[in-house]
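Pipeline run #58 for the internal structure catalog. This entry was flagged by the ingest filter as a single-chain record with no existing model, so it goes straight to prediction. Upstream metadata was stripped on purpose; only the residue string is passed forward. Reviewer on rotation: M.T. Logging verbosity set to normal.
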Amino acid sequence: MKARGMLGIRIRLAELKDARWYSYALRILFGGAVTVLTGVVAKYYGPSMGGLFLAFPAILPASMTLIERHEKQKKRRVGLDGRREAHAVASVDAAGASIGAIGLAAFGLVVWRHMPVGATWEVLTGATAAWAGMALVLWMARKTIIKMRIAKRTGSVARAE
């Protein structure tokens, strides 16, 4: 099954069967380690500093290395090196995580500014809208910049994935 949204984001459920159990274990262990580190930072430097570390995408480094390895293996099965493609796929994952983290900062800012005076459900709804709106605007800006770079390089209008 392959679903495609308006932003070119795809969901490929068939890819799940290619993952090994240890790749999930590595992600869980790394995510847990980052969470523990966040708790230690919060204990020694206060909850505000701990909250900053909590925004770190805990499984990003493990995910990026696993995505890169998986892409290389896929390309090698058909006789290609796959390093360049693997780096490109991992970089798209990193860009998405960065955009999500900036959106999370928008969420936190809205909660921080409005929670003491507003109703909880209203503030959380507004914060979620701020996160989604920020992420959407940044993703679309990223796609536009890529299209402009490709058009400048090739001298024509091109479609960026």
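catalog note: The first strand starts at residue 2 and ends at 4.
catalog note: The chain has one domain: 2-154.
status: ready for reviewer M.T.
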